[in-house]
Amino acid sequence: MEDADSSTIDHQPPGSTPFGQMRLPAYSGAHIMSLQIINFQGVPHIVTPYQKGTYIREDAFWRQFRISCSGELSFMEDNPIFGTWQISYGFFLGERGLIGDAMTLAETRIREHSFDLPEDAVGFSPDMIYIRDEQKRLVLAGRTRGSRIDWCRPVSSEQEARDIIKQSSTLHSEGSFQSGWDNFTTARHLHLDADNLEGQLVDPFWREHARVALLSRGQ
Fold this sequence. Notes:
The protein is of the alpha+beta class and 219 residues long.
């Protein structure tokens, strides 16, 4: 894992000796993961489980994964007889330090339909969940299905990634064509199918970690 801020992510400094160590139990999905904390000059760092020999400053560790949700926000027409109109919208759901915890947060928010809507909005329909790291690389994605999330399984090869990019591009093109003919519902479903495919395009660094997180939950 790389970061421009060397104060937050470090390999052990040459010749340095941590003067305090402890282990911190942390929940990750249905499992408990033991995290090692090492103090360097009084500053606690966590030994990241995602890259051997790398330490992340504790405060940065617990916010390394950002969870967001995209979907459609609904507003009432000026004349209620005409119903509602929608716009694409996204919500920031929170930050977590472990992939499993990020998944749990997303699942809870979707299950409880917990969104801080703008004052004039009348509803929100979630479509996709995204978990990204501090460099905005995709760690995991999922498509919402009612009150649950179907997590996208990461691609297993670059060839598979290229095939998915080709398929999703075709779907987006078809969606744009349908929008041009005012077939907005059809267009929306086509774009969503493309987004779902693209959810498999996890950054190469995170693919195995994402697969492990899914397997730990029986997925």
